[in-house]
Amino acid sequence: MIENDERARNDSGEYVPEHTEEAVLEVMSPLEPYMTAEIADELGWSRRSAYNVLSRLHENDEIRKKKPEARRVIWIRPE
User: How confident is the model over 35-46, as a mean pLDDT?
Assistant: First the structure.
């Protein structure tokens, strides 16, 4: 049985990412510290999805990452 997949596609027929870096940057104020859960809740995403996007932004040097404890991460958008 084939299910009707209503996810958005681009002109090439590829799926358009639902969890984008731009969406995260829009909700982050510069120099304000954020926890992964705060970003996830604000965007209505799972924490894993938010963490993955935040990690990509950090890898691209678009946000900073602080790890004050073993299981806690703080994300900061520079000015």
Answer: 94
